[in-house]
Each structure stands twice: as structure tokens, then as C-alpha cells.
UniProtKB/TrEMBL annotation:
<keyword id="KW-0472">Membrane</keyword>
<comment type="similarity">
    <text>Belongs to the sulfatase family.</text>
</comment>
<dbReference type="Pfam" id="PF00884">
    <property type="entry name" value="Sulfatase"/>
</dbReference>
<dbReference type="InterPro" id="IPR045584">
    <property type="entry name" value="Pilin-like"/>
</dbReference>
<feature type="transmembrane region" description="Helical">
    <location>
        <begin position="450"/>
        <end position="473"/>
    </location>
</feature>
<dbReference type="InterPro" id="IPR052701">
    <property type="entry name" value="GAG_Ulvan_Degrading_Sulfatases"/>
</dbReference>
<keyword id="KW-0812">Transmembrane</keyword>
<dbReference type="InterPro" id="IPR017850">
    <property type="entry name" value="Alkaline_phosphatase_core_sf"/>
</dbReference>
<dbReference type="GO" id="GO:0016787">
    <property type="term" value="F:hydrolase activity"/>
</dbReference>
<dbReference type="InterPro" id="IPR000917">
    <property type="entry name" value="Sulfatase_N"/>
</dbReference>
<keyword id="KW-1133">Transmembrane helix</keyword>
<dbReference type="InterPro" id="IPR012902">
    <property type="entry name" value="N_methyl_site"/>
</dbReference>
<protein>
    <submittedName>
        <fullName>N-acetylgalactosamine 6-sulfate sulfatase (GALNS)</fullName>
    </submittedName>
</protein>
<dbReference type="InterPro" id="IPR024607">
    <property type="entry name" value="Sulfatase_CS"/>
</dbReference>
<keyword id="KW-0378">Hydrolase</keyword>
<feature type="domain" description="Sulfatase N-terminal">
    <location>
        <begin position="5"/>
        <end position="337"/>
    </location>
</feature>
Length: 716
């Protein structure tokens, strides 16, 4: 028989009661329900821990929480010499990959998943980084790559760790991870593969608190108008988004004719959370159980588990046997044709998965521990030492909500279950990260006190080094700001491109309404303008027009981070706004409402085909211009060979560029590519252009003759 592919979909804080097939009444999960209808649903499946890192370590190793080297959220490291599922699949000749949230440990190296044996990893390594659904960077095979999301200005910690709430939100990480997972299936359709697909949905962004950022989504979709808090709309959309991903994976397998040879397993790392402003009771995420994440009550550790493969797994089955995450190690080994190696606490589920229940081994009991809490389940009976240290005995067949303590009526059973603790619990010391061990050893070996003279010498050396390094550091800071500036321009380009797609390939108009050169704006607004044909006053143009139609959000993303100046907007007679190619969004009374730092090159082109250009490139937006003012008008003269520009000077004849220390400017071109342009020294004030390198005058490039204005049609 052909080797079976395995896809294990692991959700993050999805509750037992969040799925329709497990009793959810409000939210619908049709694709996941279909997995259950066509496969086997398990009603007594457990996580090893009520939090993510120990639970994921258990999946990796086959160990329960009394034997794991990671038992608490802050435990840093799973040593590489532990046997794990990645090694199993490598030995069996599978291509393996983990996509999404790895989350095994705290502070581990970026390539830890690769060190464990996975062939590839894309997404998050650290669990806190995975809180951020619009992170500034993700990992691919241990290396950072940057997204288009931007933290708030000055949020150095988010740039370094990825932890926080983005200010500019463009790239939604669940979409990126899903796309990568689908690509992996496509690329390895001719090889046996193991895909560990770990979405970070529906976890909260804890750093967003109880604001709407606590449950970050790209949009609320059909839940937008529900009479719920935004946090709950976000949670509902997250559950729906998980279901959509499941549907896409199933469709991809069918498209590639792999659906009959691929086992899909679906679960969650622990019970539902009550974070980010979401309440467990809003949608009964814990189902009929008491407790949620961080609790060893049923709601914190009993999780959904579904197995699906049309040619191998019986359809429409519900299994009530006791299973938990340590069973996955032996199950994967047997499915891959291998024998489990090393210690583990699980059983193989292969018999029940393939419909051979008679030969399925059963657990005598399951054992759990977390931060002083302990639980043992044997049949219907459950021993629980809760977070307060109080001991209980519950009969789950009669009391699923764990309300009635029956230990006084059943002292023998209580004692038997409590005795299991001594058998299953092993004391442990969390492993330190390898590099920390090395540093500790070196410091111990060579540690001694410095003399006063030695300290003074060190201080002097630091001072000398600082004098060399400060210019370098300042240059690095400037480079980072320029990168942020470039990201702004790329966002503006994408928004303008979307605008163009919706208006038959035409681009937004550009005008500066200057007094001296009326031909430059003549008839620009005569035809095709979305707001009508008679709007010579309070015009929108350039990026302001794009923003006015909600193609881009308005904020600091329209300001160059390396300049505190803006393209000033002047009013004439109180109602007509004037600006150098850069129109502000306006209040009805004519006062400017929004400023931008960037110049738009509307004079270079009027649609994507047949561009008027120079040097083979056509600038869409850029961020610098000569800050020269037209004499006697107070209106800033600008270069129409540049695009969006950063700031204008207050004094006539000021010939310094306003941003990036006069070194140059960022530009994004109409085909989407972007680059930095160095500005030659000795640039003259006025309408400087990059082709001629001197001051321009009206008519130098034909003025009114650049192209027939009648064909411009408002630039739409």
C-alpha cells in the first residue's frame, strides 16, 4: 500500500465547544464538521497541559506532563537528544515541515524546529511572538524576513522580538502561513509527507489587552454588524478562518488526487482562552465543562480531535475511549511503519483510526500536572488537586461540570487515584538554553575582580570605541528610518494600484493649482472624475484621492519618519486648497484635515499603458523635493519630475532637501519596484529634475504639451 501522508492541524486555544460538530450553536464550522462526518470524532481526547508550550512538547516527545522537560510556560528548552516526531518521519523517509506556531520552549534559537529534525519551518518560533497577527517579521528556516506591517514609532522591542501590536497592518500572518502550507502540499505531492500545520488562531494578542486589538483579524466579515463587542466579532471570525483553512487543505488534496492517501488529524493545544477581551461564556467555548485555559478542570484540557481519510478511516464514527497527546508519537510511528524508540507514555491509535477497535489498547488512566494542579482520570472517575490546593473526586459520567465532590463517599477510589501521582510524577529542573550554559561555564572559569586601573582603561577604551561607533549607529538608525519610509511608499503604491484596477487602469489625477503655471492643471478635472465634473474647489488628488475612497488608511504611514515637516497646504479665499501635487483630504470648510510627506507623479503618466517617462522608469511616489517657494505667492514650487515629496522650506531660496539629510530620496515606480536615488551635490533651488539636474521652467518639457490634456480625463 502507498505510504500515507499525514497532516496534523493544531489550533491555538480552540475550545471543545467552539465547533458545530461538538455542539456549538452560534458559530458554524461546515468544513470541520465534514471531516467529522466523513471520519471519526473523539469525545474523550485530552491535551497534556492547559497551556501551549508543554502541550506541544508532549506532542513532539510522546511524554505526559509528569515526565516532560517542559512543564510550564517559562521553561526554555527541549533538548535535541530527546526523540521526537520529526526524527520519526525523517527515519521513515518522509518530507516533514512545520508551518505556523512552533512554540516549544521560551527563548529558544530561531532554528530550533530545524534542530529537532523538521525539513522546513515557516512562521513563529516563540509563543509570545505568535500573539501578534500582524508581526513586523516572521521566520523561514531560522531566518527573519520582514513583512509590510509596522510597529508604532519607537517600539524597538517589537522590531526586536515581534511581540506587540502593529500600527500599520497589511500582512495577516494566518493567510501567509496557510499559503505556505498549501504550497508545501503542492511541492511534495509525489513524496510521502508530514505537514504539522500550527495556526495561531484563535489565540488572543495579549499585548492588545481588552481593546479590539486583543482579537486581531484582517476583517470581521459577516460578523461586522453583529451586536457584539469587537473582541467577540474577532473571535468569531478567527474560528471561521480556521474552518476556511481546513476547507482549502481538503480541496488542495482533492485537486492533487491525494485525499484518499492522506490522513488529516485536527485538534487544539489546550482549552479555550479568556484573553484579549473574549469571554468563554460568549459562545460556550468550553462546551459543558468547567474551566478553561490554565485549569486542569475538563474545560482546560479536554480538546476536539478528529481523524479523516476516506479510504482508511471509517466515516461517521464517534469514539469515547480515553486518548491524549502522548499517543501521537506511537501512532505516527506505526502509521509510518516504524517502531517507537525511547521512553514515551502513549499508545498507538492506529487500530481505532483504521476501524480495528477490537485490537485497540486502552489506557488504565491519564495523568496531568500544571503549576501545582494535578489530575488523574481513570474511567469515569477523576482526581483533581485544583489551583487552590484543594483535592476533589468527581464522577464525570454523572457530573460532567465537576460540581459535586464525592471523595468522602469513595475514600478507596480517592486513595487509589492519589497514589498514581507518586508513580507518575518525576521531579525536574528545566533545561537552560545551550548558549546560556556555555556563558555560565566561561564566567565561572575565568571570573575575577578588576583593579581600578583596569577599570579606568576599560572606560577609556569604551569612550574611544563610542567615538567611532556613534556615527555608524546614527547611520544605521537613518537606514532603518529610510526603510520605514520605503514601506510607506510601497503601501501607497499598492493602494494606488488597487484604485487603478477599479477605474479601468487609469491613475489618480495630480494638480498643484499654482498661480504661475495654470496650464499644469487645466482641464484635469473636466471628465471622468468620480465625484462629478464640476469640482474646481476642495479637490482630492494624488494619494488624498486614493485615501478618500478608503484604499489606504490615513495616519503616520503618509509621513516620512525621518522628517518632521509636511507638504504645506495653503488656502485662498478660504475655500480653495492649494498644494504641490499633494492635496490634503479636506474638511468641508476648506481647512486641511490630513497631510502627507510624499509627492505623487501624476504628471508622468495617466494610465498604466503608454507611460510618459524618463531614464526608462516612471515614478509613482517619492519622498523629497527642492523646498523652493515661488516668489510672492507663498506657494511651494515643486518638481514635477519627482513624485510625492517630503516637506517644503519656509524661506525662498532654501536649497536643502527636507528629508534624509539631503542625501537622496526613496521612490516607488508605477510597475511596483522601488529604490533609493542619490541626489547629486550642489543641487540648485527650484524645479530640479533627475534627468537634467537643474532648475526647470514652464514649458521646458512642453508645459501644456506633455500630453493632450483632453486624454487625461481626470487621471482615472
Amino acid at each position: 500500500m502507498k505510504p500515507v501522508n499525514i497532516i496534523f492541524i493544531l489550533c491555538d486555544d480552540l475550545g471543545w465547544g467552539d465547533l458545530s460538530c461538538y455542539g456549538q450553536k452560534t458559530l458554524k464550522t461546515p468544513n470541520i464538521d465534514r471531516l467529522a462526518e466523513e471520519g471519526t470524532r473523539f469525545s474523550n481526547f485530552y491535551s497534556t497541559s492547559p497551556v501551549c508550550s508543554p502541550a506541544r512538547a508532549s506532542i513532539m516527545t510522546g511524554l505526559h506532563s509528569g515526565h516532560l522537560p517542559i512543564r510550564e510556560l517559562n521553561d526554555p528548552y527541549l533538548p535535541n537528544d530527546y526523540n521526537n516526531i520529526a526524527k520519526v518521519f525523517n527515519k521513515a523517509g518522509y518530507v516533514s515541515s512545520i508551518q505556523g506556531k512552533y512554540g516549544v520552549g521560551n527563548g529558544q534559537q530561531h532554528d530550533d524546529a530545524l534542530q529537532k529534525g523538521f525539513g522546513s519551518h515557516y512562521g513563529y518560533n516563540c509563543m509570545k511572538h505568535a500573539h501578534n497577527f500582524f508581526p513586523p517579521w516572521l521566520l523561514e528556516n531560522g531566518k527573519k524576513f520582514f513583512t509590510r506591517n509596522l510597529p508604532p514609532e519607537g517600539d524597538v522591542l517589537q522590531w526586536e522580538t515581534g511581540v506587540g501590536v502593529a500600527e500599520t497592518k497589511i500582512d495577516y500572518s494566518p493567510d501567509m502561513v496557510e499559503s505556505k502550507a498549501l504550497d508545501f502540499i503542492e511541492e511534495h505531492k509525489n513524496n510521502p509527507f508530514f505537514l504539522y500545520y500550527c495556526t495561531n488562531l484563535p489565540h488572543a494578542n495579549n499585548e492588545g489587552g481588552n481593546t479590539a486589538d486583543g482579537m486581531e483579524v484582517d476583517h470581521y466579515g459577516e460578523f461586522k454588524d453583529k451586536p457584539w463587542k469587537d473582541n467577540e466579532k474577532g473571535f468569531a471570525r478567527m474560528v471561521q478562518r480556521i474552518d476556511e483553512s481546513v476547507g482549502k487543505i481538503v480541496d488542495k488534496l482533492k485537486e492533487l488526487n491525494l485525499d484518499q492517501d492522506t490522513i488529516i488529524l485536527f485538534s487544539s493545544d489546550n482549552g479555550p482562552h479568556e484573553e484579549g477581551g473574549h469571554k468563554v461564556t460568549m459562545f460556550d467555548s468550553a462546551g459543558p465543562f468547567q474551566g478553561y485555559k490554565r485549569s486542569l478542570h475538563e474545560g482546560g484540557i479536554r480538546v476536539p480531535f478528529i481523524a479523516h481519510c476516506p479510504s482508511r478511516i471509517p466515516a461517521g464514527q464517534v469514539n469515547s475511549d480515553l486518548f491524549y497527546f502522548p499517543d501521537l508519537m506511537n501512532t505516527f510511528c506505526e502509521l509510518a511503519g516504524l517502531e517507537a524508540e525511547g521512553p514515551n507514555d502513549g499508545l498507538s491509535m492506529k487500530p481505532v483510526l483504521l476501524g480495528d477497535e477490537e485490537n485497540q489498547q486502552k489506557h488504565a488512566y491519564l495523568y496531568f500536572e500544571f503549576e501545582g494542579q494535578i489530575a488523574v482520570r481513570r474511567g469515569a472517575m477523576k482526581y483533581l488537586k485544583d489551583i487552590k490546593g484543594e483535592e476533589h473526586l468527581f464522577n464525570l459520567d454523572e457530573d460532567i461540570h465537576e460540581d459535586r465532590d464525592i471523595k468522602s463517599d469513595n475514600p478507596e477510589i480517592f486513595a487509589e487515584l492519589k497514589a498514581i501521582i507518586e508513580k507518575e510524577h518525576r521531579d525536574y529542573t528545566a533545561y537552560a538554553l545551550p548558549e546560556l550554559n556555555d556563558l555560565k561555564h566561561k564566567n565561572h572559569r575565568y571570573a575575577r575582580k578588576f583593579s581600578l586601573i583596569e577599570l579606568l582603561v576599560v572606560i577609556a577604551i569604551i569612550g574611544i570605541l563610542a567615538s567611532f561607533l556613534l556615527p555608524i549607529l546614527n547611520k544605521s538608525r537613518s537606514k532603518a528610518l529610510r526603510t520605514s519610509c520605503m514601506n510607506n511608499l510601497k503601501q501607497m503604491y499598492l493602494a494606488t494600484s488597487m484604485y487603478s484596477e477599479d477605474f479601468d487602469g487609469k491613475l489618480p489625477t495630480a494638480s498643484w493649482n499654482g498661480f504661475n503655471n495654470p496650464g499644469h492643471y487645466r482641464n484635469f478635472f473636466s471628465n471622468g472624475f468620480p465625484y462629478g465634473s464640476s469640482i474646481q474647489k476642495r479637490q482630492f488628488f494624488g494619494i488624498a484621492l486614493v485615501a478618500s475612497l478608503d484604499y489606504i488608511n490615513v495616519g503616520d504611514n503618509l509621513l516620512c519618519p525621518e522628517s518632521n515637516k509636511i507638504d504645506s497646504v495653503y488656502a485662498k479665499n478660504g475655500d480653495e486648497l492649494l498644494s504641490g501635487f499633494n492635496a490634503a483630504l479636506n474638511n468641508p470648510n476648506g481647512s486641511p484635515a490630513v497631510y502627507s510627506s510624499y509627492m505623487y507623479g501624476g504628471y508622468f503618466f495617466y494610465e498604466k499603458e503608454g507611460l510618459f517617462g524618463f531614464e526608462g522608469e516612471n515614478i509613482g511616489y517619492n519622498d523629497a523635493a527642492s523646498p523652493y517657494q515661488n516668489s510672492g505667492t507663498g506657494i511651494p514650487a515643486t518638481s514635477y519630475y519627482q513624485c510625492y515629496f517630503d516637506a517644503v522650506g519656509a524661506n525662498a531660496g532654501d536649497d536643502t532637501l527636507a528629508c534624509h539629510e539631503a542625501e537622496g530620496l526613496n521612490s516607488v515606480y508605477i510597475d511596483g519596484h522601488a529604490k533609493w536615488i542619490n541626489v547629486p551635490s550642489g543641487v540648485a533651488a527650484g524645479w530640479w529634475d533627475f534627468k537634467r539636474g537643474n532648475s526647470g521652467k514652464d514649458g521646458a518639457y512642453g508645459g501644456q504639451g506633455i500630453w493632450p490634456y483632453s486624454t487625461y480625463q481626470g487621471g482615472l
